[in-house]
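explain this:

___
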Amino acid sequence: MTHEPLNILALLAGGVIGVTLFQRLGLGSVLGYLVAGLVIGPWGLGMFTEGEDLLHFAELGVVFLLFLIGIELKPARLWLMRKDVFGLGSAQLGLTGLALAGLAWLFGLAPGAAVIVGFGLALSSTAIGLQLLADRGEFGRRHGRAAFGILLFQDLAVVPLLVLVSLLAPGKGSETWQESMGHVALALGAIAAVIAAGHLLLGTLYRAVAGAHNQEVFAALSVLIVLGVASLMETVGLSMAMGAFLAGLMMADSEFRHQIMADIEPFRGFLLGLFFMAVGMSIDVGAAVDNGLLVAGLVAGLLVLKGLILFGLGWGLNVGRDNGMRLAVLLCQGGEFGFVLFTLATQTALIDTKTSQLLILVISLTMALTPVMVKLLPFLLPRTPERALAALGPRANDAAPGTGGHVIIAGYGRVGQTIVRMLEAAGVSYRALDLHAQRVAQAREAGQDVFYGDASRAEVLRAAGLDGSRAVIITLDQPEAAERATAAVRRLHPEIPVFARARDPSHVAELVRHGVTGSVAEALESSLQLGAMFLRDTGDHAPDAVQSLVESLRDECTATGRSIPPRAPIRPKSPTDKPAEGGTGAEPRSTAPRTDRAAAATQRRYPAPQR
């Protein structure tokens, strides 16, 4: 007991140092947590001797993660994903499970044990897959939706797999089938009861608690509902993560959903970090060293086989070649539910302890390797575009004729489309590049010069006419993608002006280091413009003083890389201020109430329509 405070400090320090270091190296937070757990675990500093105990507690992080995903995914949208969930998901689990089961049987396992091993290894890590998608902002991408559908189906399949363990265990009789059907009926009944209770009681319960105006109690209610539904699902044989996802779906249409998400988010982040650290602690380095060749072969074989099946399914089921590659790298690892499945199989004597420990080690290592593989993904993608997308891409002979003078726009999202409208109104020719094929096709049908292509690739930039362009405008919302595109342009043509969208002033500074001519921090600019709009509307400050303040705060933030500018005084408008052109000088302040003045100003700006 005397060492518990030191252990807690070690967890916190390991997480902070590991995540900070690996984030700076560009390897992501997941690998930082995994390495931190390995360092302070049994095979590192030895501050924790049993990583499995912490792993069981930290699995609550996966529970809260699935809850937040469920609350953001309305049932109507889930129905639209049914092909990914039940089509792609069932195909992945079925094909991968059967292939791995066949290999396990060939290597000498009994048929029943081979089936459990095969389907246990076919599962992927929900925690790592979803966290990597969240870190990279790829939930809305095609491969992100496909990955989520596969992971959701795998969570649904956990219960049948657990039942299958009991059916295949030695010494079970015909009564097991009756018990199994009873377990399935109990699980379905629990799901129906939770859905009914959610529709009938949740809204009333939240309104009653919200009426007490006690934020702590409101947050406690949210945690209680998540853990309560998750525990109920675990009791009837489903996974806690599946129960949490169901609870989230019930609250997806609630008027309290945003507050609930804000209350749950801190628990998710902390416990999910602990989960990844516990996985790092559970890696048996001694066994890996003693059985180096065997472990390396199993790890490589699992990653390659699962990756090939995922890639083939993605390419064959209209996910696309490149997205199929992304899907394969993201989900080729083993999953945390494999720990549960193999532990139960050991307890029922279906597989021996040595085999179970070896399989858990293989799963842990594949989970640890996934963030590295995702980081290397841009180097694994083919350099030539997919045949279906090639027609949408720019060609060298499509470049602007003559002296050029067009502008290349990297990214055709909301920002890129707005800039295109401005350039069209000003009579400036342009060529836009984007990686969303449907968006590109729609723009091409509308007669716009938009092409499919990655703006960070030299051949794409040349085909888009970079040699004859007058400038490049980068509107990509992902910082790393914007920096890669800037670096690619600068390598080819250091003299071409490059203007880029930035997330915040620190990102502006990073883009400047990559060589942009100018950059706009979207969060900072919206804040400055909103504040300036208010100051001008009050009439208490000179317009020149407001503009000067905006420029000085912008310059200060850009120079320091800070998102929040320092405090700065503003000179109130005085009677000696020069009048604006066409004006009569400073107007006296109105004695009318502020609301009346605001209403009058609104009426002047937005007059009522003529009847």
The longest strand covers residues 430-434. Strands lie at 407-410, 430-434, 450-452, 471-474, 498-502, 518-521.
